[in-house]
Request: fold
Amino acid sequence: MNSQSAALSSATPRLESIRSPRQWWKDAVIYQIYPRSFADSNGDGIGDLAGITVHLDYLAGLSIDAIWLSPFYVSPQADAGYDVADYRQVDPLFGTLEDFDVMLAAAHARDLRVIVDVVPNHTSTAHDWFAAALAAGAGSPARARYIFRDGAGESGENPPNNWQSLFGGPAWTRAADGEWYLHLFDSSQPDLNWRHPDVLEEFDSILRFWLDRGVDGFRVDVAHGLIKHDDLPDHDFDAPFEGTGNFGPMWDQDDVHAIYQRWNGVLAEYGGERIMVAEAWVSPPERLSRYVRADEMQQAFNFEFMTVGWDATGLRRSIDAARAITGEVGATTTWVMSNHDVVRHVSRLGLPDPTSWPKGISASDAQPDYRLGLARARAMTLLVLALPGSAYVFEGEELGLPDHTTLRDEDRMDPGFFRSGGRDVGRDGCRIPLPWSGSEPGFGFGPTDKTWLPQPVEFGELAVDRQDGVAGSTLELYRAALALRRGRALGAGDLTWHVSTPTVLHFSNSGVRVVVNFGHSPLPLPHGLELILSSGPGAVVAGGLQPNHAVWLV
Ligand code: GLC
Reply:
């Protein structure tokens, strides 16, 4: 063990479980807010913290338990805020620390907990530490906080290894003096060296800063990436890999868990109600459950489930596996269908192959069938919200928003589009500013018609005010399903399968029967049960559940 590894492990004694008896997160519904696209209060076209405060009653009316905010910290915004220059300050784009405190207090007053993003794998190149590292030169202590190396080749002209950035191109960039630094994402996002004690101490302090302000937890960005294999070996990118996650010497290294055991201790200082949720793209699912052992994080996103798509057999397998594996470590699983990094599920499920997993959809790709995708998405909502465990809702999914699939290249902002030379269209399509009012400029996103990404015209019909109080709308479906889920404590329930075939999933939880029709013909429903919720007005015709629909019965 080198001295830096020793620093990591000596500072991280394994802790006893600090879990409180209540463990609110185990069945919580957590709503993801992507602040720049949620609501704009000042008319600059970018959503902000004050915009969130304005809409807290709307959120509380959804019967959710918590909100999670993607980054709003000081940042050059090269990766929409996932490139942090100051972890303790609000970027003026989003407001001020005072705006944050106001929002937090107002959320708490409505019994909504607030989780914030922490981005520990990398800083921005605009962070003071990186500026100091560049200025201090090769071999300096300031550089040791990042991953600087000599290049390969006669005069170091080649990157130190063959690692690729997730956004395309090499994962190394050369500094002016000839050393190279590692960045698993954009060149403006240098990876931190998590073997360095300064890094460990700094992030303890960052966590405490936000915990002191009263946040209820953290979503941990790229949680599986902080520790790299010590030798930084080349990786065989063509090696077969049966899974959905990242694989290689840069991901999911065993030592990463010592960091989360340490953070578990930091959160424990604040009582047993604060949580961490891992963004960890790892496979197989057994690897993911390591992040939610009793002395580490409380939740991890179950991305494997998200990637299955419209496939009854795959969903059944995924649900059972996730429940079994997290159950073994005393955790519950999370059900996620969309977030700010993936094509919205309304669009995915409307593709010719509803199990496909495109990185983005552009005008030159096959376009999703919106009506079909929405029907399936609404059926999936009834499936997911009836499952035991915790559920995540990505802003706008309660409106049935699709991706913007015809964005012009000149409007794109995602570094993934630029670094891949346009091969990946990137994630802008799922990040379009929300429509609050069908008739106002910018569909009521803010007080002007400005929106940082253009909205498709279809967003007008899907705006909150067009769905509010309208029977059969997607918004009212979410409101009803979430209220029933809470009232019947489905998140804390248990699951019994009745039928599971390639065309039908049928289970019960806490007295509620859930039937989903994945087939192409109507399905007779069980007799003698009362319909309490259906995925759409035409779901049941003459006692038959129509294809691409779901019902809850009691
Ligand atoms: C995570 C974020 C994503 C970001 C990346 C780099 O995957 O969810 O939006 O680009 O990390 O921070």
Notes: The pocket of alpha-D-glucopyranose is lined by residues 79, 82, 119, 185, 221-222, 279, 340-341 (CB under 6 Å). The two ends are 59 Å apart (CA to CA). The first helix runs from residue 3 to 10.
